[in-house]
Amino acid sequence: MKLVTWILLAALVCWGEPRDNWRAARANGVLVQDIFLRARRMLHAWLTAADSKTLLLPDRVKGSLFGRFDGKPLYTPHNSGADNYPFLVLTAYFTDPRLFEGRMKIMLRNEVRYTDVPGGRIPGNLRLDTHELGEASFFGAAEYCKDGMVPLTEFLGRDPWYFRMVDMTRDFLKRAPVKSRWGSLPGEGAEINGDVLQTLGRLIPMTGDRDLLRWAEQIGDAYIEEILPNSNYLPTARYDLEKRTPSEIAGLGDHGNEAIVGLMLLLAIENELGMPRGQTYRPVLRKTLDAVLDTANPDGFIYRGIRVKDMTVANNWLTDCWGYVYSSMYAYWQVTGEEKYRQAVLRVLRNLSRYRDYDWTKPSNTVDDLADSIEGAIYLVAREPVPEAIEWIDHSVKKMLPYQKADGFIERWYGDGNWNRTLLLYALMKTQGCYPKPWRPGLETGAARDGNTLYLSIHSTTPWSGKVIFDYARHRRILNLKKDYARLNQWPEWYTVGENELYKVRDASTGRVEIRLGSELKSGFPVALGAGEVRRLEVSPLGPS
């Protein structure tokens, strides 16, 4: 679809009658079909680069626009596995079920077979030309779990990728390399420790494993009791445990903000369990959030680097990861009820309109930074639908589209997966979490919401029959969390159905009304369409009879 078409469709949504929900739903369906087509093209482009023996993907291919490709194809768990593969899996899930059940699971099987270093479940880098396996990479395991297995588990639940994450993390616990007075830690830096905390933030409530809880508490205590107080409450790139000194810079972008995100998830879990740390961590993490706000620009946006000695800005570029940090701020409000931090989130969302033309890609010259910025905004508007932020997302997503080349690749490096991820996040925003099974080209599914009523438009250019799957409270049913805490690497919940609640499904064309349990909508509402037919379903909770 040409970019001008996206602009015209956005006009239909934004400038139509305020309550013309059907028009908005239909326009969203056109956008979502285009996203699925683009994502599928990118998926199939990358599959052409797969190693013939293992089917694994290199982290870069010839012509890479970010990092030089030296002709030696390399599979890396922290890049290929963390940033590209998982979002190809989800693209296949939405657009090609046979590929999802077949090749994508074969790739996981081969990843275990060929990249696990003997003696454990920690993977290494694999040369795809010689199939030479490198040494065990704890950083690779941390990144692969947090950025790869976590988002798959957040959406798919206890599928094979969940069990891969569980066993990799348990093996990491046994072999954690850094010794401290709190116990063994994953590493000395904010990134690897934050990665592991974010993974544990899912696995602890899912498994009830007390060993994993204790490991998270060891990491958390190290930060709360020493690392944060000794670095002006911002986690630095490294911390010398012997000298008890931080490195100079606290990175609030990628490779730095991970510890803040992980610590907030741990706080939420400790609070839900009624454990003492649910209270004792609060004042320290409050100081961390205040340090973030104190060093932000006047609109609330965060710089990439802060010198912790004097709390001055070390890197004047705004971080594309601002939404990750503000998601943690929102989670802190969800735990404590301290309104100051929700208001900080609302302020930055309202100020997004001033950044329509900010070049998020300039520092690294890659669309990945723009994709990350949009991703963070989507996490937040799912909870606080600020109009200025929604308009900014719509405007910014259009900037991502021209990066796709005619052959389907984006920039020919592992960051292409993050382009796919953000487009899929946006697509689910435009369907309010619904999606068709099976999807095929020419099938448009879009939605608009007005309070508790969902307006769902389905249109097909050819005859189609299948189901429309509805979203549900995945934070409870998959993760076993009481609240849907704002967090990195989630798939926001939009229009969710309660499995044991009744819903009225009205066909707007015929006036026919059907009553369904939420569990039935979650499994899929059957729809049949003739060529060119539009089906409009109005869904709302069944009120008192």
Gap between N and C termini: 46 Å
Instruction: Please give the count of helices.
Output: 19
Please estimate the helix content.
40-55%
The biggest beta sheet reads: 5 strands, antiparallel
Instruction: Please tell me how large the radius of gyration is.
Output: 23 Å
Instruction: Indicate the mean pLDDT.
Output: 95
Classification by helices and strands: alpha+beta
How much of the residues is beta strand, in percent?
Answer: 5-15%
Report the count of strand segments.
17
User: What is the global morphology?
Assistant: globular
Which runs of at least 5 residues are low in confidence (pLDDT < 50)?
Answer: 11-18
- The strand line-up of the biggest sheet is 9-10-17-14-15
Feature tags:
545 residues; alpha+beta; five-stranded antiparallel β-sheet; three-stranded antiparallel β-sheet; 19 helices; 17 strands; 48% helix
In short:
The chain has 545 residues and is α+β, with helices and mostly antiparallel strands.
Structure commentary:
By secondary structure, this protein is an alpha+beta fold. It has a domain of 117 residues. It has 19 helices and 17 strands. The chain has a 5-stranded antiparallel β-sheet. Strands 5-6-7 form a 3-stranded antiparallel β-sheet, with no helix packed on it. α18 links the parallel β12 and β13. α13 runs antiparallel to α14 and α15 packs parallel to α17. The protein is globular.
Q: How do the strands and helices of this protein lay out in sequence?
A:
Layout: H1 3-15, H2 21-47, E1 74-75, H3 77-95, H4 97-101, H5 103-115, E2 126-127, H6 138-156, H7 160-175, H8 190-207, H9 210-227, E3 239-240, E4 245-246, E5 249-251, H10 258-272, H11 277-280, H12 282-295, E6 303-307, E7 312-318, H13 322-336, H14 339-350, H15 367-381, H16 387-400, H17 416-431, E8 435-437, E9 443-450, E10 453-460, E11 464-469, E12 471-472, H18 474-477, E13 496-497, E14 502-507, E15 513-517, H19 518-523, E16 525-529, E17 534-541
Parallel strand pairs: 12-13
Antiparallel strand pairs: 1-2, 3-4, 5-6, 6-7, 8-11, 9-10, 10-17, 11-16, 14-15, 14-17
Helix pairs in contact: 1-2, 2-3, 2-17, 3-6, 3-17, 6-7, 6-8, 8-9, 8-10, 10-13, 13-14, 13-15, 15-16, 15-17
